[in-house]
Amino acid sequence: MTEENQSTDNNQTTETNELNIYEVSDIHNVRSLYCSMQAKAKEFEIKLIDTEAQRDDYKTKLDDRNRKHHGDIERIGLALIEVAEDKEWCSEYDEFIEELNGNLFLELPTRKRNFDVTIKVSREVYTYLTVQVEATSEEDAQEIVEEDTYTYLDDLPRDISDWEERDEDIDVTRVERS
Q1: Given CB 3.0 to 4.6 Å as the disulfide criterion, which of 37, 47, 51, 160 pairs with 156?
Q2: What is the rounded distance in angstroms from the CA atom of residue 126 to the CA atom of residue 123?
Q3: 110 φ, ψ to 5°?
Q4: Strand, helix or coil at 176?
Q5: Is the pLDDT of residue 126 over 70?
């Protein structure tokens, strides 16, 4: 071998050794980085689990507070109704609560009163039936009866109530407070 060839071989060996040192060092750094990343991921996962548990706990507490809040609003409204009825402020109370509820997220309960709703039932003859429903207004009473009229037809005499349901045979004709 000539000196030139030997020198070239030595340079290549030195370069190869340097590459191997860098490769080993890089592999060690990559492994170290990978292990560090795995540890961080595990730490993040633990924090995420803790956060999810806290979120679930907060949601449970919030749901419980909402239920209690709704119950409080209901109790406040019922107490106000009782005072209004005792002091005979019913119509003033109804007007006030109707206006107030228009601006509230959770509405206060309104007073329910009895209404007589007359239903015109036609077959071969016309029959009028007056039923009593609990509602907040005449319009509400009419709507309650119109939505489920057939429920109230059980009060008709047997020979009239034994028929097929047809909407054109029934008409709410009058609503008035009891």
Answers
A1: 160
A2: 6
A3: -105, 160
A4: strand
A5: no
Residues 6+ apart with CB under 8 A from 157: 127
Q: How far apart are CA 14 and CA 1, in angstroms?
A: 18
* Tokens 């005499």 sit on residue: 157
Query: Do residues 178 and 132 touch, judged by C-beta distance below 8 A?
Result: yes
**Are 141 and 175 within 8 A, CB to CB?**
yes
Query: Whose structure tokens read 């290549």?
Result: 12
CA distance 120 to 170: 6
Q: Render pLDDT for 7-46 as a digit per residue (tens, 0 to 9).
A: 555 555 555 555 455 555 666 677 777 788 888 888 877 7
CA-based nearest residue to 165, from 157, 174, 153: 153
pLDDT at 127: 67
CA distances from 42 to 32, 39, 54 (A): 15, 5, 18
Tokens of 133: 């429903």
Look over the chain and give the mean of its residue pLDDT values, rounded to a whole number.
Answer: 77
Listed in sequence order, the DSSP H helices in 87-137 are 90-101
Task: Report which residue type is found at 102.
Answer: G
Per residue in 45-90, pLDDT (tens digit) is: 777 777 877 888 888 989 999 999 999 999 999 999 999 999 998 8
Q: Taking Cα atoms as reference points, which of 127, 149, 140 lies closest to residue 175?
A: 140
Can you give the pLDDT at residue 115?
Answer: 87
